[in-house]
Amino acid sequence: MLKTIIFDLSEVFIYGMYGIERPLARILSIAEDTIISLMSGNRLRQLFQGEITEDQYFQDLLSEVQWDISLDSFKRVVRGNFHGTVRGMDSDLLRRLDGKYELIILSDHAREWVEYIKPIHQPLLSKFSQLFFSYDHRLQGTKKFEVTFQKVLKIIGNRPEECLFIDDRARNVEVAGKVGIPGIHFTDAQHLINEDLPQFGITLIA
Q1: Which of 60, 93, 137, 143 could bridge across to 172 with cysteines, CB 3.0–4.6 Å?
Q2: Are 145 and 175 contained in the same domain?
Q3: Residues with Cβ < 8 Å from 100, sequence gap 6 or more?
Q4: pLDDT tens digits along 57-74
Q5: Same domain for 10 and 30?
Q6: CATH assignment at residue 134
Q7: Are 150 and 177 in contact (CB under 8 A)?
Q8: End-to-end CA distance of the chain
Q9: Cα dist. 22→16, 25, 35, 37 in Å?
């Protein structure tokens, strides 16, 4: 019996790193794919796991790539992206799920970014009973690793088959599946509501 729905946050409910490359490409006159590639990798994983600070992440990156942008300007561009919301993924959708299922967030994110996001998206985040972030001392790991999902299961006290995981990254869904948690690769709200959730007996169409 399904008890808990575990949602990713970025690119499912709000904008995260997706889209940051567009304003940066205009400012720096650099290809968008190049920006994403350079911002990803081990350095970003360290940030998400709380091993380095946001300032360390940006300073190390700028020192390496020598982009013509100040640290403060870079941070403003990145944080500005967090204000955006994913169409159709709003409090009303969560209201229709609330009371029927425990709703949880599991997100790979930076501590400083989450502190910035929480006041902006408080009405949305208040719908979730628990928020798990990769830098959290209870996890200290990203969704790249099976142990992250195992820790969440232990904390919430559920069996894998009692949960449903929804994430925009297919790789994360695959990792969850390895520990027995069924998952949905999120693409957009309409497909989630009309196609994906009904496969698990969840009907939200009014």
Answers
A1: 143
A2: yes
A3: none
A4: 999 999 999 999 999 999
A5: no
A6: 3.40.50.1000
A7: no
A8: 23
A9: 13, 5, 9, 13
- The pLDDT of residue 183 is 98
Residue 206 lies in a domain: no
pLDDT in tens, 1-55: 999 999 999 999 999 988 999 999 999 999 999 998 999 999 999 999 999 999 9
Residues 102 and 129: beta-carbon distance below 8 Å = yes
Please count the structural domains in the chain. Answer: 2
Same domain for 99 and 112?
A: yes
Q: Is the pTM of this model over 0.90?
A: yes
Amino acid at 129: S
Give the largest Cα separation in the chain, rounded.
54
Residue where one domain finishes, among candidates 34, 60, 81: 81
Residue 79 CB-half CA count within 13 A: 19
Domain that holds residue 76: 21-81
Question: Could you tell me the pLDDT band of residue 204, with boundaries at 50, 70 and 90?
Answer: confident
Q: Do residues 94 and 195 both lie within one domain?
A: yes
Whether 74 is covered by a domain: the verdict is yes
Residue 90: pLDDT over 90: no
Instruction: Tell me the DSSP string of 51-114.
Output: SS-HHHHHHHHHHHH--SS-HHHHHHHHHHHTT-B-TT-SHHHHHHHBTTBEEEEEE---HHHH
Q: How many residues would you count in the chain?
A: 206
Token pair 């928020």 in the structure block, residue: 131
